[in-house]
C-alpha cells in the first residue's frame, strides 16, 4: 500500500482486474492462491486497493472508482463526486479557466474541475497521495488538463491562475479536527492565499462557527441527498452572502437577513429543514416561505397551518401533539396498529432505538414521531410525510 508503482505495471493492473470483486470474506483464500503466481507484496497491495475501490463507490460511482487509485485517507477525506462536480460547474460559470488546487488529495476535485474544462495544477506534499492523484488523472484520461505536483502548498506560486481551491486537511492522528487554525494548512493561511487570487474557494467543515467566516467571503453550505457534506468560503463572488445549496438539483436558498421566526403553537404541519439550511442559519427563510413559526425558540422545527411544499424542508402532517410520555405513545401506536415507526429527535435526550424497544411497535401501518420541545416543554408530535 505504500507504493502504487507496482500496481501501475501490466502485471499489477491485470491483478487488480482479477481481484476487483473479491468478497472480503474470501480474501485469505484468494491471496493464498494468487501468491503462487505473484509476489506476496503485490497481491497484498492489489487486494488492499480493491477494498479501497469498493469503499470509494459511494463517493465516486462504480465506473470511476473501479479505475481510480486510492489511499485510506484519500477515500475518507475526498469530496463526493456530485459535490465536486457542482462546485466545478459553478467555477466554470464564473468564467474560471485555470485553478491551482492546493491540498489536492487523491485528485477528486481536480478530476471534476478538468471535466468542466478547467486547467488544473494539483498540489499535495504527501508522495503517496500525489502519486495517486497523478495515476487518477491518467486513468480517467485527464492528463492534458491536470498537472500534479508534489510540493508544500505554501511554496507554490499561484500567480497566473484564475482561481485557487484549497481543501485543508481536517483530520489528524486523533481524528477529526474542529479548530480551523489546526487545519493543515491553517484556515488563516488559506484565507490569505484566497485573497491573493482573483477568485477562490476554500472547503471547510460544515460546523464552522459563523463568527469565524471572514466578512469578505461568501459562505455556502452544501448537502447531497439530505446529508450535509461541506461548507465553502468563496472569495471574489458575493462578499457577505450566505447560501444553502441542495443536491441533486442544484437548488440554492439565499439569506434575506430575516429575523428569527417567532414561536407558535403546533399547527397541522411540521417542516424539517434540510441540514444545509440549518447550518447556514436560514431556518427563518424557510419559515417565511411556508408561513410558519418555530415550535421552540432553540429548535429548528417549523410549524404551520397550511402545506406549502418546498425543496428546502420536508413536510409532515401532524395528527397528534402530546406531552412526552412513553406509555401514552405506546397505547396510541397499539391503537393505530403502527408497526413501522420512524423516530426523529431534536432537543431530546431519548435515543430512538431505546424508544422503539419500549413501545414495541406492531402492525401494518407506519408513523413518524418527533421527540422535541414545544415552547420549552418536552413533547411528542406524531404524524406522517405530507402529501401534496
Short recap of the structure:
This protein is α/β, with parallel strands linked by helices and 388 residues long. It has helices at 10-19, 27-34, 40-65, 72-77, 81-93, 108-115, 127-139, 187-195, 275-279, 283-290, 326-335, 352-359, and strands spanning 98-102, 119-124, 146-150, 163-166, 171-172, 175-176, 199-204, 218-224, 227-235, 242-247, 251-254, 269-273, 293-296, 299-304, 313-323, 338-345, 365-374, 377-385.
Mind explaining what this structure looks like?
With 388 residues, the protein is α/β, with parallel strands linked by helices. It is built from 12 helices and 18 strands. The chain has helices at residues 10-19, 27-34, 40-65, 72-77, 81-93, 108-115, 127-139, 187-195, 275-279, 283-290, 326-335, 352-359; strands at 98-102, 119-124, 146-150, 163-166, 171-172, 175-176, 199-204, 218-224, 227-235, 242-247, 251-254, 269-273, 293-296, 299-304, 313-323, 338-345, 365-374, 377-385. A 9-stranded mixed β-sheet has the order 3-2-1-4-7-9-8-10-11, with helices on both faces. The protein has a 7-stranded mixed β-sheet with strand order 13-14-12-15-18-17-16. α6 links the parallel β1 (98-102) and β2 (119-124). The longest helix has 26 residues, at 40-65. The N and C termini lie far apart (52 Å). 41% of the residues are buried. The model has no long low-confidence stretch (mean pLDDT 94).
